[in-house]
Amino acid sequence: MKIGLALRELHRSEADLHHELLQIADRHRVDHEIYHVAQDLAAWSRDHLRRIAEQAERYGEHLDPDARGENGLVARLWDKSSELMGRSSEAELLMLRDLRGVYLKASGVFVDWELIAQAAQGVRDTELVDVAQSCMGETQRQTAWANGKLKESATQALVS
Amino acid sequence: MSDGPQVHGPRRAARRDRIAEPWGARTPYAAGQQWPVRVDTFLADDLTPDDVDRWVQTASILHSNGDAIDIAVKDGRVVGVRGRAVDRVNRGRVDVKDLYGWQANGSRDRLTRPLVREGGRLVETDWDTAMNRVVERAKELLATQGPSAIGFYTSGQLFAEEYYTLGVIAHGGIGTNHVDGNTRLCTATAAAALKESFGCDGQPGTYADLDHADVIALFGNNMAETQSVTWMRILDRLAGDDPPAIVCVDPRPTPVALAATVHLAPRPGTNVALMNGLLHELLRNDWVDRAYVDAHTVGVEELEACVADYPPDVVARICDVPEADLREAARLLGTAQRLTSTVLQGFYQAHQATAAAVQVNNVHLLRGMLGRPGCGVLQMNGQPSAENTRECGADGDLPGFRNWANPEHIEELARVWNVEPSDIPHYSPPTHAMQMMRYVENGSIRMMWVSATNPAVSLPELRRIRSVLSQESLFLVVQDLFLTETAQLADVVLPAATWGEKTGTFTNADRTVHLSEKAVEPPGEARSDLDIFIDFAARMELRGKDGTPLVHWHDAESAFEAWKECSRGRPCDYTGLTYERLRGGSGIQWPCDDEHPDGTERLYADGRFWAHPDVCEDYGRDLVTGAPYDATHYRAMNPDGRAVIRAARYLTPHEIPSEEYPLQLITGRTVYQFHTRTKTGRSRQLQDAAPEVWVEVSQPDAERWGLAEGDLAEVSTPRGAVQARVRVSRIRRGVLFLPFHYGYWDTPGGHEPAPAGRAANELTITEWDPASKQPIFKTAAAAIRLVARGDGTPSAAPTTAASAPVGTRVEATRGGTAAEVLETTGATP
Fold first, then answer.
1. Could you report how far apart the first and last alpha carbons of chain A are, in Å?
2. Is B727 exposed, middle or buried (0-12, 13-18, 19+ CB in 10 A)?
3. Is B652 on the interface with A (CB under 8 A)?
């Protein structure tokens, strides 16, 4: 039985995505839609982390149900750089890079959820199946958001 | 077009001060009867109708209602207005702004010559010089950066012909994706909500539904001040037999709230929770037309699962409304025989805008109440021609409600325009206004052409906007009637003709198309917006793929004919209309084509929608993230083109009250002013009725912060501060209201605070609904403090409507004899 291990890996990748979303929000405060929506999407990941930790207990894994906050020094430094970058076209390239990062990380989390859902069906853990299906839906929306933003921003960023 | 028996009282004529009584005399009527005629006439200088040389047909330009009006002309100038009794929209009535606002046309400070910036100053010049500067810069930017360097920001106040021409020039000629209107601030959510629910834009209902409804629900719609003539219609129903019940959702004590059977005043930012609570009750009590839902919709299961989490007790806590009122409102919606709902800025400019507006559509889908007399949704808009920006492709949509993500729609449009499909940018949704400002800010849009709008006062977070528009890297072209705050920042200013000085058509919030004819010559060298755009296209040598001119029309009527061709076969089909047909009679509702030669009163009769994957205007968006869905997703979800029931969970607003900013600020309008007062501020009766900014504070909040009527207060948010006189009103506790009309053109600052700010948008947050991209003007955390005690003089806030004072010690708003209007009732059209 390696479901605990898989949940641990999922927890790691979801925490990573959560961090990435908060970071993109902070780096792109002057791109207001990114700033606000990324925080909403980070809240979804925060909720997922709690649910993963809850499920993992039954598989003998003790994972942190609370996501790490991002109000430290690093975040404040980014905040400053965001203001400095506000008037520069380089900011758009940085944004593409960051959105690409969210897209890849969210895709990774999605795959991890798929693995959990498959395993949970194998052991007939219907509770875990339900959790996986509900969370995967939101992970997919996180991916679609990053993808949509990339498509919307790429032309202006790359041709101007 | 309107049905039902007519009622005629005795013929009566009376003079009435319409500043004091904006809604005029009642003409009661009962359910199913036709709304009686009342003709409002206002002539300046003690003139009588016998003195008038000519009456010239038009419609109202200072709101979205589309009231048909005749302009009185004497000795080559406009001298007054009269409502058109024959028209289905107003049956002779005229809104208070239209009664007096036309006087601004004759203002001495109209722009009469083009201006160009020389050595930092704007100086007068001729048209050739001004246009050549614009064309040279456009050509240079196209050569060096390409079309992504150029953006167009237009209005909700031009004519259909002008928007269509602008859309062709920008999308088909220049090839830029950066085209939007200030309609982004007023009507974007209406369009988005209709696309989400019905697959396509297009107002389902008609004003005539108000003649039949037994319950009328107004969601965030202070109709008494935004569309006062349609509010007169409701007042006349309320005064007649079988009056309808009124449900009002609004945090302010608006005239609608005072007339309501149930008034819900939710905490700002909680509309989705409120709607989910109402839908929860509809489902729990099975106030649902199951046969309709099964036959004509998809998605009801998702809604059922979502709203299960919003029982009335939970919602009452989130929204801070009495649970009993919530249940009673749900009962009225759920048991209505004929339900008409209207929605406006209280939802559109608020947190989760599209999600909330869509839930109103869901009420009607669950109840199967669409497309029948009295059963209509009216997703309203704010401006006279907002509807046309949506149809004609000047507001971030493609013309004819074509789907930017559907290659066949692009091919069809390319055929109409005689260009290659690849010439029309369609790789992503057209850039919305706030994103355009961001591109200006980071320097990637380097030329912006602003027509008939004033972003330096109307966009959120003005300090930022002024700084963005003043950037060295930006070449700013402004086309307007006056030297507005925005025009003062421009590199080139083009003097435009206005309503009454040019011909064109425009379409109101219930799809009624009106012709507006030229009555007088524009001042000086001012030219119509259409002529300016056509001239630009010619100077740019924009051509179709066979080398013929892209813009192949030369005046309003030929532009209308071109637009008709573009609309052919689309939901907003204009092909059955001509200028001749629109002359003399009533306005006509689209679609108007061979199949519907007299127009179409209600859309979606028999549960048929323009939602099929091949037909729909939009595949929809995630209501939380705003991510567009693709064709595959939409086709799988809605293969048969039914209405889509979209659910949405409530999210906490991003800016909530804190210790430092313990209150919530909302902004809005008064019945006497329009937008940034460019016109209404130059009409004496209107300006005197609401001369300066005020802030509405509830009595408990006034006590807590030591404020009294007439005190000077400072309202602040993390973005800035403004000063305003206090009006203590019955607004919801914890909420402050500022009217957004007051900028700086008539202050020493010119275009900026000097030194204290007064524009509400100094305070608003740069944030928008991710689905509709409409900025959020109604959910900012704010603080208030006393600056100086008043001398006992009350604030200048009008007493007649939502800003009415607590107590009676404030003198009532009056216009006196200068504001007397002749009201004639009992007349037949």
1. 53
2. buried
3. no
Partner-chain contact A152 B766, CB within 8 Å? no
Is B324 in the A-facing interface, judged by CB distances under 8 Å? no
CA-only gyration radius of chain B, Å: 25
Residues contacting B538, CB < 8 A, separation 6+: B549, B551
Report the interhelical angle of B433-441 vs A32-57 (nearest 10°): 110
Give one word for B70, left, alpha or beta, with left for phi > 0 and alpha for psi -120 to 50.
Answer: beta
Residue B611's alpha-carbon distances to A160, B95, B620, B694, in angstroms, are 36, 36, 11, 45
Please identify every stretch of chain B with a pLDDT value under 70, giving residue numbers as ranges. 1-9, 827-829
Long-range contacts of A43-51 (CB under 8 A, 24+ apart): A44/A138, A44/A139, A44/A141, A44/A142, A45/A14, A45/A15, A45/A17, A45/A18, A45/A21, A45/A109, A45/A142, A46/A18, A48/A14, A48/A135, A48/A138, A48/A139, A49/A11, A49/A14, A49/A15, A49/A18, A51/A131, A51/A135
Q: Are B603 and B577 in contact (CB under 8 A)?
A: no
CB B405 within 8 A of CB B215: no
pLDDT tens for B619-668 read 999 999 999 999 999 999 999 999 999 999 999 999 999 999 999 999 99
Q: What is the pLDDT of residues B339-350, one digit of tens each?
A: 999 999 999 999
How many A-B residue pairs are in contact by the CB < 8 A criterion? 81
CA distance to partner chain B, nearest, from residue A74 (Å)? 22
Q: How far is CA B659 from CA B173, B317, B678, B783, in A?
A: 53, 21, 38, 9
CB contact under 8 A, A141 and B624: yes
Q: Which two tokens stand for residue B349?
A: 């400019």
Q: Which two tokens stand for residue B629?
A: 């869905």
Residue for token pair 């028999």: B606
Short-list B124, B204, B235, B16, CA closest to B821: B16
Full set of structural domains in chain B with CATH: 12-109 (2.20.25.90), 115-187+385-562 (3.40.50.740), 188-380+610-644 (3.40.228.10), 663-813 (2.40.40.20)
Contacts of B177 in chain A (CB under 8 A): 155
For B438, the closest of A31, A142, A145 (CB atoms) is A31
Domains of chain A by start residue, with CATH: 3-159 (1.20.1260)
pLDDT in tens, B204-224: 999 999 999 999 999 999 999
